[in-house]
Write a structure and sequence with these properties.
It is built from seven helices and no strands. By secondary structure, it is mainly α. The chain has one domain.
Length: 126
């Protein structure tokens, strides 16, 4: 998915602050290496993060943005530990049903492809 398509999708589907929290959490999970999405979906989610990172969010700390930027630039072992810690904290702040609903919304609204052969673990664990 190219950048223009993600940008267009975001303009047509404004996210709520809790959705922005979910995007941040998924970005941490991608950087942590724990995201089970296919590589193309990880790229879409990284683009989505780029589009909405400055938007209001509800519960996660804005100080995560510099950490994410630093990790994207250089993900050494020390940085992996920092990202892991923040990812675990984010997952305690955002409930599993909220994350599952967020991912379902992305699929329903066409940002991510519909699930083929519904894999429940992947669906609840982006």
């Amino acid at each position: 998915m190219n950048e223009d398509r993600v940008s267009h999708w975001v303009r047509a589907n404004p996210l709520t602050p809790v959705h922005v929290d979910c995007v941040i959490a998924v970005m941490l999970k991608i950087l942590d290496g724990k995201c089970r999405m296919p590589p193309d979906e990880k790229q879409v989610m990284a683009r989505l993060y780029d589009e909405v990172r400055a938007w209001p969010h509800e519960r996660l700390d804005a100080r995560l943005h510099p950490l994410i930027a630093e990790a994207r630039a250089s993900l050494d072992e020390q940085m992996k530990v920092r990202v892991y810690e923040q990812r675990v904290l984010a997952e305690t702040v955002i409930s599993r049903p909220v994350m599952k609903g967020f991912k379902a919304m992305l699929r329903e609204r066409g940002l991510l492809a519909p699930q083929q052969g519904h894999d429940e673990q992947r669906d609840t664990d982006p």
